[in-house]
Amino acid sequence: MDLNTHKERKFDIIAIGRACIDLNAVEYNRPMEETMTFSKYVGGSPANIAIGASKLGLHAGFIGKIPDDQHGRFISSYMNQVGVNTDGMVVDTEGHKVGLAFTEIKSPEECSILMYRDHVADLYLQPNEVDEAYIKEARLLLVSGTALAKSPSREAILKAIQLARKNDCLVAFELDYRPYTWVSEEETAIYYSLIAELADIVIGTRDEYDMMEGVSGGSNEATIKHLFLHHAKLIVIKHGASGSQAYTKDGEVYRAGVYKTNVLKTFGAGDSYASAFLYALFTNKGVETALKYGSASASIVISKHSSSDAMPTSQEIEALIEAQK
Amino acid sequence: MDLNTHKERKFDIIAIGRACIDLNAVEYNRPMEETMTFSKYVGGSPANIAIGASKLGLHAGFIGKIPDDQHGRFISSYMNQVGVNTDGMVVDTEGHKVGLAFTEIKSPEECSILMYRDHVADLYLQPNEVDEAYIKEARLLLVSGTALAKSPSREAILKAIQLARKNDCLVAFELDYRPYTWVSEEETAIYYSLIAELADIVIGTRDEYDMMEGVSGGSNEATIKHLFLHHAKLIVIKHGASGSQAYTKDGEVYRAGVYKTNVLKTFGAGDSYASAFLYALFTNKGVETALKYGSASASIVISKHSSSDAMPTSQEIEALIEAQK
Amino acid sequence: MDLNTHKERKFDIIAIGRACIDLNAVEYNRPMEETMTFSKYVGGSPANIAIGASKLGLHAGFIGKIPDDQHGRFISSYMNQVGVNTDGMVVDTEGHKVGLAFTEIKSPEECSILMYRDHVADLYLQPNEVDEAYIKEARLLLVSGTALAKSPSREAILKAIQLARKNDCLVAFELDYRPYTWVSEEETAIYYSLIAELADIVIGTRDEYDMMEGVSGGSNEATIKHLFLHHAKLIVIKHGASGSQAYTKDGEVYRAGVYKTNVLKTFGAGDSYASAFLYALFTNKGVETALKYGSASASIVISKHSSSDAMPTSQEIEALIEAQK
Amino acid sequence: MDLNTHKERKFDIIAIGRACIDLNAVEYNRPMEETMTFSKYVGGSPANIAIGASKLGLHAGFIGKIPDDQHGRFISSYMNQVGVNTDGMVVDTEGHKVGLAFTEIKSPEECSILMYRDHVADLYLQPNEVDEAYIKEARLLLVSGTALAKSPSREAILKAIQLARKNDCLVAFELDYRPYTWVSEEETAIYYSLIAELADIVIGTRDEYDMMEGVSGGSNEATIKHLFLHHAKLIVIKHGASGSQAYTKDGEVYRAGVYKTNVLKTFGAGDSYASAFLYALFTNKGVETALKYGSASASIVISKHSSSDAMPTSQEIEALIEAQK
């Protein structure tokens, strides 16, 4: 997997998909019904990954759709502030709102989320709003699975991938499966298979691969055997507390464990993993170290209150890796 | 206008329509983009009116629709806690969410609201979910205009009014016009006219009556002349800072001014006015005093942080009236 | 019931609602699956009534919505040809089609209909497409129930009725209940009650009144007692083969039987009844004779192949009445 | 291109997509507005192809969705009668109707069509209604482009293709572009590219390939260069009156002209071409002869009144080829 191509391009990574608002419970250890105050953060898997990548020092851009309202303007302004380029962000003019995720923090194991995802702006990104010139400036396009859940966002993603491949831009697919936006598991499986077969890098949990394959208790071997028949060159499969594996098309296998931490809540883990993993690849640290970076970054984020604002610097990641060597 | 009928009934007032969540800016004097924390309250005009009426000592019930999620359960539990009977509340089983209103408090004059009202549960109340036995127990049914904005809630309201009239229960119509839920002003005018012609008591601002009549700068005389041809017996028209007027079918006219206060924000004024006005009518204080009660109650609520939680007691209202006599 | 008012107006009757296409089986006595050829006619209850009225010599106009396609142009051109003014006909520009009704003629008792009524143009008539100046030229507005089944047509009807009442134009309501367009019987009952309470003349079958009242086996006495509390002045209730009754607000009751004929199919009966009944009223023949006209006209139409094209002249009606005196 | 595989399978070809009703003008040489009678035939590109293939002697099956109404039952019964297996036909239970195409026959050059395709049953085929066991019995799956226009039919097609590839069943893609069902040309291009890249055989007109590529005046060379990078092994490009070309992955090119005939109307040409072309391939006549078969079959159908019922036998095709040698 060579990530040293196209170093002349303006962006290491452009993420495409949803940017929304997390409203995290200020009061801990209680159900949301009894939570009376919420703090506002930028959220959404691809937005978090772009923010995480930017905080680590990569050049990151974003393609998405937000309304010109108070929440939309907050998202843009926060992303710009942490260095994410938002030239690919389209303004919704049809009255769609930013998605919301209210989170409760009952205990480290119980953190339910209440989603407002009905007719949200990000799912109304149109294929003709994806700009070929913007994608041409990127070395890698990061696609997150939730953007495939509905038309026209689904077609915007298909268009972006066709443009990426036409312009020699790598495609990374973060499965990011959120059941609430999908019509059925069958439909999810159809589109996940389609996109995974078109991607260069695929990252997900074992459960997400199982959903894509329509199986339960699937094996990594079957997964990589199928995907390596297509475009994939690097596949990451995460197994929760048991750590994660990376497989390359030329047959190498890498493994990493997890880093201990004081877990506050579980959300944000996947996004911080992906941003740190890709950062390590782009900085030529090798796949094995990249797995460690992903893992350490996830541990840091789940010990903190937010997903986006808590994205670590490389110093913090390295310190944790060092501390638990 | 005789409100002494059917004293044997269990409820003085049953309100029908939306019960939702207000998320009020914790930080003042800044635009919402810069507000980082929000406090949660029950909101929605008819819910606020039922809550206000209950806090004043009336027997209040509620007909509405909420999901069985964290926000829905909070609403029920808050309403029960302040004494509102929720036997008429139906649980949504189709995945609709509670409506949300994010408020900013920039200055007393500028308080914009960001609404999440797309496919909200309250607008999915079905006509067959309105229980005749429940309405039969009420002396007055309070309808707020927003519930007319969409089917099937619109038909549920029409059904409730047909049942109220069949069972000798008075109908009060609070115009409560919120442009964002309506398809067009023309459609609003059609349904507002239809319901105002069926109601016994109509309460609204001069602007709301203008919208209903499709005019600008309409006159109170024209409004009452038309409505008194139909069922209306008592019409209240509010003129903002210039005070309000009440007209009865037998030709009496009453006027009241407004009470001075430290305005924090403007929302909640109409709901607190309606609940205190109806409370005074039910307790036989007469129309003139009822206008003062409405006015004083509104002044109290706009000086406080929420709409529902800030609903005053009769002692507070009387103290303010006394203080500014 | 005085229909002698406003003789100066251009139109005796303006019908509002659907104008569509009937595709009647050319081959008789077989199920539609085996029918290989279909003849095309204009159809739709209010269109048929306007056509029938015009053929009898009344001045008739029409308010509806049709696309500018081959079926839409056929409808306009046929209506004009038989003398119906179509100045109130609006052209659909959003791609909605004309409704279709395929009929089979298996036997006089069995004539099933296959409807294409999904997103048809007539149900997209907007309230702002109803022209007050046009309604002002009519002595009577004929509303058929099916147009109430969906928004925005429903609101267009409500608007037309508000304009008719404002301009002293009588309102006749033909119940014309077609289950397939309605969401539920409960919703039908709500709107049928609402409109019947606003109409001057109400015409329907006993079954249709039952549906409106949410009862089965309802009595004419209950129906007229309720409706005469509102605006109705003349109520016609049809009992199929047992004939029909007309009730006036001042307490008169009229009855008529049915005329024998060779029944080919049953559809079109109600429309031909309504047009001949109204024609007789407008020509001062009195309610009793009007019932006979309605009945004879229905007998003529059900013996012929179409609904619209078969509408009789007054000579044919009078000949049948004379023949079976 | 080896079509000799899996001769043990029950079906040579299974077509998937729409089966609907054509209502063809009985009266010729006039606009549809003046056509008063229509004849009923089975229609829809993949249904016509299955019917054509069956009449030529292939074993054909069909996957689609029709309601259990008079039109749906006619379709099934006609297909069975001409030998098409309909075990893959699913009954719609949600009230969707069969699509309709009214055709006028003004002159050989002018034959406009009026489509009823809004919410038609065929576009509601669900992915879980596509049966793997049925596809497993086929040597070739024929997909027509129109079925990609809307969800869930779109996903049913994607699922069918994934199942075909999993079970070593060839995929033929007939572009069959009908603008009226699609949201935008951009969306069409996205899905046409996606499916053409997954298919073994692609058949279309030059205009259809241009639409897929988002170009005008595109070249066959560019088209085949791109598609042969993916799965395609055989590509047919039709140029109307100038004849058609076939390209194979191993570099062969074949050409054929057109056969003279008395053109009555133009529709049905593409479907008859595809069925005869595939028949010739399956019977090992070679690509060159297959082009002739396609061309001759098209000439026969456009000289007759229907598309499906007019599908020729191999004797008729051979006679025409012989006659114009």
TrEMBL record, chains A, B, C, D:
One BP annotation, GO: inositol catabolic process
Top-level taxon in the UniProt lineage: Bacteria
GO molecular function (one): ATP binding
Record keywords: ATP-binding, Kinase, Nucleotide-binding, Transferase
ATP-binding is among the record's keywords: yes
A matching Pfam family: PfkB
EC number(s) stated in the UniProt entry for this protein: 2.7.1.92
Statement: the UniProt record of this protein carries the keyword Plastid: no
The Carbohydrate kinase PfkB domain, residue ranges: 12-313
Top-level EC class: transferase
Reactions catalysed: 5-dehydro-2-deoxy-D-gluconate + ATP = 6-phospho-5-dehydro-2-deoxy-D-gluconate + ADP + H(+)
Xref: InterPro entries: Carboh/pur_kinase_PfkB_CS (IPR002173), DKG_kinase_firmi (IPR022841), Myo_inos_IolC (IPR030830), Myo_inos_IolC-like_sf (IPR023314), PfkB_Carbo_kinase (IPR050306), PfkB_dom (IPR011611), Ribokinase-like (IPR029056)
Pathway: Polyol metabolism; myo-inositol degradation into acetyl-CoA; acetyl-CoA from myo-inositol: step 5/7
Matching PANTHER family: 5-DEHYDRO-2-DEOXYGLUCONOKINASE, HEXOKINASE FAMILY MEMBER
Family the UniProt entry places it in: Belongs to the carbohydrate kinase PfkB family.
Functional description taken from the UniProt entry: Catalyzes the phosphorylation of 5-dehydro-2-deoxy-D-gluconate (2-deoxy-5-keto-D-gluconate or DKG) to 6-phospho-5-dehydro-2-deoxy-D-gluconate (DKGP).
Name of the protein in question: 5-dehydro-2-deoxygluconokinase
